[in-house]
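quick one, 274 residues, struct below
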Amino acid sequence: MLGNRQFYHETVRNIIVGFGTLFNDIHVVRKNNSGVITQSMKVPLAYGPKQKWLARLDQDAGLDSKVAITLPRLGFEIQNLTYDPARKLNRVQKFKKVKSSADDANKLDTQFMPVPYNLDIELYAMAKNSDDALQIVEQILPYFQPDYTLTVNDMADMGIKRDIPIILNSVNYEDNYRGDYGERRAIIYTLGFVSKFYLYGPVTSGKIIKTVQVDQYANLQDQSPKREQRYSVSPDPITADSDDDFGFSETVSFFQDAKDRDLSTGEDKTSTNN
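---
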């Protein structure tokens, strides 16, 4: 697309996976009248729409059903993806990284600045009684004031890590109790989050420039202007990488001829205009 080769950095996928890991270790305990714990369970977490679980509840509504959906449980899903102009970066700046492998030691990876987007995610906690639902909610809300920062490998190929804020925007309550006393009850807390992240474009590779050479000419109005001076600069040592502590070697040469630099061979040749 747009003249570029196929690329996929799995950015949104990594955000979703990271978001899910925040809530995959929540437990619910149940106690008897004496305050002794009689049951402890880890709340299952799955990606999927809330309507899916509600439909499953309706299908297995009877309390005497041998196979029914397990409550409590957690689920989450993407709601929306929008551009965030307030966090726009300079589009002409680039990330740069020298390749570390021996085969690509003289190549440089470059990538334009990423594009800011907001990802809206809903997390819902479903339980069959109020105490289970409140236990889940109280294990989540204290960590969001109103945001929680998640560190992700934003662009592994470029060695970029970024802190992604996960912001809690809303908490809604729903008691899905319908029908007679023989039907199952579902108490649902829906938590609305927004993740502020960046999307990256393709990575391009090119050779590293290690020598710069400039020829200066006089009397450019002439058909065969004579070069007067050549200025060359290169890193010292020439084998230095971008992360090394190196200096520069500068050379100035003076000429009184009409030769030109042949870029294909790297040699000086007599100008064809002579």
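The two ends are 48 Å apart (CA to CA).
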